[in-house]
Amino acid sequence: MSANPINRRLAVFMHLDSQFVPAGLLGMTEAGTDVLASEFKYGLLYLDRGNAIEVDPVSLPIQDKGAIRGKALLPTEGLTLFGGIRDAAPDAWGRRVIEARLRAPMNSLPESTYLLQAGGQRVGALDIRPSLDSPPIEIRSSVHRLEYLMEAADRIEQGQAIPSQLEDIFDAGSNLGGMRPKATVEDDDGTLWLAKFPSQGERMDVPCIEAATMRLAAEAGLDVPAVKTETLHGKTVMMIRRFDREWIDGKQHRRHMVSALTMLACDERASREKSYGEIADAIRARNAGPLIKNDNRELFARMVFNILVTNDDDHLRNHAFLWNHRVKGWGLSPLYDVMPRPTMATERFLHLGVGEQGRLATLDNALSGYSRFGITLHDARETIDRVWRVVREWKTYFEGYGVPGGEIEKIAPAFRHLNDVLRS
After folding, report:
1. Tens-digit pLDDT profile for residues 152-188
2. Three-class SS state of 35
3. Burial group, residue 151, by CB count within 10 angstroms (0-12, 13-18, 19+)
4. What is the pTM of this model?
5. H/E segment holding residue 38
6. C-alpha to C-alpha distances, 374 to 318, 359, 360, 388, 424, nearest whole angstrom
7. Residues 331-340: pLDDT tens digits?
8. Are the C-beta atoms of residues 283 and 320 closer than 8 Å to each other?
């Protein structure tokens, strides 16, 4: 028998000028773990701010402030929760950490609980609190606690209790998405890093390979954040710099971030029905004018890279947009979550649509839809050539990055030969 609906009201804050300010009130109707409906009302003082940022660029735009003053707004496209709010909630791993803290079964809590429990280092610039009077949670974990965080993450994966000396994981890991164990850590100069730990039962050194793949993407000219690795007790930890944080005049600023899932106004069940071309359409419709051309070139290059390395985990949550305060508009975020998948299959597919042949992972298919990205055929071919010239030497690069020979052999089937992906 389903649970009775419960109405909850939460306060939403936005980080502006290095501090949180109230943005509005979120109303949620929940029944058990299901969100039945939601509404959002911007605060009048927030709308009066010259630097106000829209919480959700599709469902909650603020270009016409007069039309939305004092009004309760609803999600578009039949969604029950605003995408911009959903992006501030933890995904799979963060939920497991919260459940471990509250000693709750997997996926058993209301969405409002996950929103409130995500803590002070959640992705992006939003904060969700019980009320407008609630103080922020500003707990940070030092990079020097990395060993303890890895041990705690391992315990959570095994379903074990977390002793008091390892409870840092409840703050450092509760705000993050993705399936893999991870935590946010701060180094001595205040820079935040996302630490990605090895997961149980893996037959390869995933953090080592993912870090090398990200560096390979940077060599190919893609926009990649700083990446490094640490070794703890013979295990590799991948460290990626948090690009939703930046330091300006000695103060840390949080950058508002939304997923491509939000930009396309759909839920995760519809992700596989979407395409890179639709993300390109969203870039033209939503991004700041000065960024559109380069962002779409970058998106096309990422699609090509994913084809060549068989990264088929390229779903809409693994593409994101950041608010750019310099041009006062949205722009494509740096690349993240790129992991090759070794397979012997001759016919391969990405998660998202590539071109006229749907999700088929070939460069011919990519070329069939080049115009959707606002580039010429010459530009598309030049991009393919640039990326391929680097990816074809991937073994040399991986060796230079210190990837062991055994790991290179394991991941080799993921990398495509040009003849397998390009006929024209």
Report:
1. 888 888 888 887 767 777 766 666 667 789 988 888 8
2. strand
3. middle
4. 0.94
5. strand 34-42
6. 22, 20, 21, 21, 21
7. 999 999 999 9
8. no
